[in-house]
Structure formats: C-alpha cells, structure tokens
C-alpha cells in the first residue's frame, strides 16, 4: 500500500496541479480480529483464494434487466441469508419493502418508520440498512436515517419480530440537509461500519473532514452486540483513536466528504469507498485490511488528487490516495460505490472485479488489481438512469436500484470482443511529451465518424494535435475525427497524436472509449 500514500504540500496552481512528493510514513497499525470471527472470513487464514477473472476489462459489457417497478425513491438493498431468496429494499421515505423473484415486489412494507424519519430536503430520509450476521435467528437489523425533529443522522437497531426501533447513536446535522452518508455494513470482524458526510452545503463549512472531535466526514466502527456503560454499544478497544484526548473513539477513518456507499470485500476484508466529490473530482478509494485504521482520505485538504483547501493541509499527516478519480466532464455528478463481484454466475468474467457507477452519467466503472500495485480500469457499459445503490444476494449476484422512476434491476455481464484497438507511442523530455495513437477498427462494420475519449495524468496539458480535432476539459480529452479520416473500415486504422506539457508525470493514458465502447490498448 505504500504506493497509495501521499502527503500534503504547498498550494498548487489550478492550471497545472502537482501530486505531492512521496514521503515515508509508518502505516496505521492493523486492527486485531476478534476471536469470534471465523478464520475462513479473514484474508491470510489459509482458506482457498476466491476465483479471479482474467478476461480483459475492455471485453466485458455490463447489462441490466428491470425486475420490479413502483418503488418510491429506493436507496439501498439488503439480502437476508435465511434461505428465503428475499431482497429488502429501502425507500427514502422510511419504509422497507420485500422483493422475491417468484412473487415480485410486495405492496405493503415489512418495515415502516416514517413517523421517525426527517424527509425534508433531497438527501434526508431512511438511507441505509444492514442485517445482523445472525439475522436468520435474531431477526435484528440496523438502519441509518435522518431523524425528526432536526435531521440528526441516526443509527438504530430494528427488531423485526417486534417492529421495535431502538436508536443507538446519533450525530447532529441540523444546519444543512445534504451529505448524510448513511451506508451500513458489517465487516469480516463482526463489527458494524457506518458512514456520515461532512455536514453538508459545499466546501466542508465546519472543517469536519480533518477534525476528530465530530463524527461528520467519517466512517465509524462499533460493536452493536454489547453495551458499555452509558453507551448502547461498545467502542472496540483497537479503534485507532481510542484514548486520544478530544477524539471520538468510534472513528475508524476520516477525511471524507460524502461516502454515500462503501463496501467490504468478504474475500480479503478490504474496503472500497465511493466518496462524492465537490465538483471537480469524484473518487473511489480502496484500503486493504491492516491499512484502514486511522486512514485519512484527504478531504478537505484534497479533492481527489488536487489540493482543495490548503488551510486544511498538514505536512505531518499521511493521506490515502484514491485508486480512481474522474471529472464531471464525463457527465458524472456523484459516484455510486458498488461491490467486488464474488458470485458464481459471472465469475469467469468479473470475479474479483470492483463495479461502481455514477448517478448522472450511469457509466459502469470496472476496477481490478493488476498484481503490480496498480489497477486496471475500464468503462464497461451503462446502468439505468439515477442508480442510487448496489446490492448483492447471499450468493454474490448483483442488483441495483434507481431513484426515479424507482426500479429494481438485476445486473448481468457478457463478453464481447472490443471494436477498437489502440497502439500508443511516446516521446518525453523535460516538461514535454508527444503521443502518437493508432486507432484500429477491430469490429465488423465501418466506423463513420468517431469520438475518442480518454483521461490524461494530472499535470498534463495538451498544446497541439494532429489528424484530429482535440479538446481538453479538466484532465479529460475528447478527440474527434477530421473530415479526411472520419471513416474507418473493418481492419483499417487511422493515426492521430498530440503534444502536451507535463509537470513530472509523463505516463500514457490507460483508459479509452471510442464512440462509448472501451478499446483494447497496446504500447
């Protein structure tokens, strides 16, 4: 993980941002695993490794099939592992409804806490759900919601057999109605993890992200199976800030803006976080087990890879670098964090691959570790409009819900040969570089008019181009055909290129789409 660490530095110019220089720090200590956790659920236990796919990401297409209609602003999915094949679907108004593949969506909710939920504002409401690991026996589950009367972000236990709501922990959140987070997930350690945003509005008005005396802008880790003193829960003794003066012991990670959806990979205990950006960058973070406790994800010193607020930066703090950032120039507006696929049906295609999307662009992002400390990435299709959350069945298959018009969709994956292949060559010097790109039509039909889209490394700025009409917005480049090379017959190629300046990173682009189809890349 040392390659995913960076440090704050002096304020950088907006036109040519730089990454901070690497500084050696001692990583956060690994959290101890409670002895009650089954050994097979913990990475390194000697259990057989789950199957990981080797199919190139650009050869994968994600598709969806709508299976239920008529949901009212659904925002989360949970699947009880009790042999019933049910899905629990959270509606923002304060209800939970049941879907079964044989009988469809039940009309009446199985849970209704609307009398306790503050629904004012677009982002308030019932936001998250997690089923107790022993749900099949206890029928206990946990809910995150904004509570009446003033919108406090609240965690509660719900006893399904008794229809009883028991608030456990809350964080005041009265000033603004956005950035409530709300993800709930049980970890492989048996503890409950919960996210809350930075307090809302814009620009982290309370400087919550870097403060340790508030739960705003954090992911928490608590033990909901016991009570400790006046608390309705216990704080694990190996939480990173236990015993620190002025710090909340519940905090597991900090420096987050609005971690609307995160997940924990059951195969290795690593955490994947989709942190919604301010306006320039959406980001996905991946933290391995043993690197999570006390991790600082940067907000509001950083947004993505760029300095956002120099006043929030400290030279003695270790920040965690995101594994993917993308700009709203893609049409995106809010990253929707997903899951690592661990099912059986599509294991040969996407086993071990993390899948996420964006609320506005509906782009499906696929990320896979490359075995060398980096990540392969590709855009592999589109989701329905306005997806708000992913969910998995007990067998690891994927579903998503979308906000408006309110539906449940089953996610599938298929293999399809890419319709384009790119060969890249580069010459770099000092602060400059040239890149030549050969675009080959590997499909079976002519391409009449093309649009190639790809991101540059931060600090790279296009100065000129040839054989194309090229524009750059943020770090995203769009290259369109010239009049004389608009048509590419099957098996034929065209060549384009550009001259760019750089601020130290002269790496080549790694992710391309041609007319929205992912391209294979060689160099």
TrEMBL record:
Q: Coiled-coil stretches, from where to where?
A: none
Question: Signal peptide: which range, if any?
Answer: 1-31
Query: Which GO biological process entries does UniProt record here?
Result: carbohydrate metabolic process
Show the Pfam families listed in the entry: CBM_2, GSDH
**CBM2 domain span:** 413-522
A molecular function (GO) held by this record is: hydrolase activity, hydrolyzing O-glycosyl compounds
Q: Which UniProt keywords apply?
A: Signal
Q: Which named protein is this?
A: Glucose/arabinose dehydrogenase
Q: Which organism is it from?
A: Sphaerisporangium rubeum
Lineage at the top is: Bacteria, Bacillati, Actinomycetota, Actinomycetes, Streptosporangiales
